[in-house]
Design a protein that fits this description.
Blueprint (H helix, E strand, L loop, with lengths): L1 H13 L4 E6 L8 E9 L1 E2 L4 E2 L8 H4 L5 E6 L2 H9 L7 E8 L4
Antiparallel strand pairs: 1-5, 2-6, 3-4, 5-6
Helix pairs in contact: 1-3
Length: about 100
C-alpha cells in the first residue's frame, strides 16, 4: 500500500502544467478572444517523438483569419497520464482562439 501511495504522490508531484501562447498577426495580449477548438497532440518519450496529430495546421480551425492565438499547454490530466506512463506517452493540448471582434 505504501508503494502505491508513493507512486501516486510521485506522479502528482512530477506532473506540471505549462502554457505557451503564440499571438499571430495583430492580436494583442489584452484583446478579448473567443475559443474556437481544442486538439490533443500525442508525443512519446517526454515529447521528443511526435506522433501523427502532433503538428496541427491552424487553417481548419481559424479559416482564412490572419489574427489568432495558439495556446499549447499540458493540463493536469495530460501530466498525470505522462507520469503514470513514466514519460513514455506525453500528450499536450493545443487550443485556438480568435479575436472576439473578428468576422
Amino acid at each position: 500500500m505504501k508503494k502505491v501511495l508513493f507512486l501516486a504522490a510521485t506522479a502528482f508531484v512530477l506532473s506540471s502544467c505549462y502554457n505557451t501562447k503564440v499571438y499571430v498577426g495583430n492580436v494583442k495580449k489584452e484583446d478579448k478572444v473567443v475559443k474556437v477548438k481544442s486538439v490533443t497532440n500525442t508525443h512519446l518519450i517526454g515529447g521528443l517523438v511526435p506522433l501523427g496529430s502532433a503538428k496541427v495546421d491552424p487553417k481548419p480551425y481559424v479559416g482564412d483569419r490572419t489574427d489568432y492565438v495558439v495556446k499549447t499547454n499540458q493540463t493536469f490530466w495530460n501530466g498525470l497520464l505522462g507520469g503514470i506512463t513514466m514519460g513514455i506517452y506525453t500528450p499536450t493540448t493545443t487550443t485556438f482562439y480568435v479575436p472576439a471582434n473578428s468576422k
